[in-house]
Write a structure and sequence with these properties.
- Cell wall formation.
- Pathway: Cell wall biogenesis; peptidoglycan biosynthesis.
- There is one protein chain.
- The protein is of the alpha+beta class.
- The chain has three domains: about 70 residues, Uridine Diphospho-n-acetylenolpyruvylglucosamine Reductase, domain 2 (2-Layer Sandwich), CATH 3.30.43; about 130 residues, Uridine Diphospho-n-acetylenolpyruvylglucosamine Reductase, domain 3 (2-Layer Sandwich), CATH 3.30.465; about 80 residues, UDP-N-acetylenolpyruvoylglucosamine reductase, C-terminal domain (Uridine Diphospho-n-acetylenolpyruvylglucosamine Reductase, domain 1, Alpha-Beta Complex).
- Helix 2 runs antiparallel to helix 4.
- It is globular, with a radius of gyration of 19 Å.
Length: about 300
């Protein structure tokens, strides 16, 4: 148990047995053994430095790209609050963004500063920390194209700044150190007119609204697009549109989205995803890879 040895003192908020279902988009899953909401980066650094190295640590953003299994998450879940949600222009083309800032806030701040090229972040339901870790992307843009560097707190508690080259980005993947937490990042765009930037953000927003089940309890895009293929088309061809398992369902609107129709368990959602993967493999021979993270104990 984490109480032996005792946890380090904190200035932020530390909660035992904290329910995670309310904090994730699927509204399902178990509790965190400990949920830590640090007051600032120094608080997080000191906590991790004093924490038993055997205790696992994971970061939680907006909870959009995540299945928290029903048995909960052992160790410490770190959630970055308002102190990490600030975004400010540091020069005419560069934004300094807290790890807890949303894509909407980043893209809106870029618009106000006349910085184009970050509009795609408007469409990703997550925070800067998650974008950086997963090389988030949509509508023709990817984080690797706009990131300069990021500030992270390593599991040891050491703060480091990593340039984009050190992350070795590929599609929806980075080599960010295991259990490291992104507390800030610098994004660089290009000169643009606020009205044109807003028009592009509106186009992206309307496209998402028309094609994705945004008003449902979902986790966002479920599977990565295989090379040369679109995951939703493979799922559709395998006859999985509307497929249901307990309270979990493949969206009728967009087949690369799973939805919780009411009281689905995380086990049902994950099992449905695995059944979709099985059917796609049988129908097309393609092995779909999860894009949604699955964490915790069954």
């Amino acid at each position: 148990m984490l109480t032996a040895p005792p946890l380090p003192q904190v200035r932020g908020k530390l909660t035992a047995d904290a329910p995670l279902a309310p904090l994730v988009w699927f509204k399902a899953g178990g509790a965190a053994q400990w949920l830590f909401e640090p007051q600032d980066a120094d608080d997080l650094s000191a906590f991790l430095r004093g924490l038993d190295p055997a205790v696992p640590v994971m970061a939680l953003g907006l909870g959009s790209n995540l299945i928290v299994r029903d048995g909960g998450v052992p160790g410490v879940v770190v959630r970055l609050g308002k102190a990490f949600a600030k975004v400010a222009a540091v020069d005419p083309l560069t934004l300094d963004c807290g790890g807890g800032a949303s894509g909407i806030l980043v893209s809106s701040t870029a618009r106000d500063a006349g910085i184009a090229g970050l509009e795609f972040l408007r469409s990703i339901p997550g925070t800067v920390g998650g974008f950086v870790r997963m090389n988030g992307g949509a509508y023709g843009g990817e984080v690797k194209d706009v990131l300069i560097d990021c500030d992270v707190i390593l599991r040891s508690g050491e703060p480091v700044t990593l340039p984009v080259a050190d992350l070795h980005y590929t599609y929806r993947h980075s080599e960010l150190p295991e259990q490291a937490i992104v507390v800030a990042a610098r994004f660089r765009g290009r000169p643009g007119e606020p009205a044109a930037i807003q028009a592009e953000m509106d186009r992206i927003s309307a496209s998402r609204e028309a094609s994705q089940p945004l008003r449902s309890k979902t986790g966002g895009s479920t599977f990565k697009n295989p090379p040369g293929e679109k995951a939703w088309e493979l799922v559709d061809r395998a006859g999985c549109r509307g497929l249901q398992l307990g309270g979990a369902q493949v969206s009728e609107k967009h087949t690369n989205f799973l939805i919780n129709t009411g009281e689905a368990t995380s086990a049902e959602i994950e099992a449905l995803g695995d059944e979709v993967r099985r059917r796609v493999k049988a129908q097309s021979g393609v092995e779909l890879e999860w894009e949604i993270q699955r964490v915790g104990r069954p």
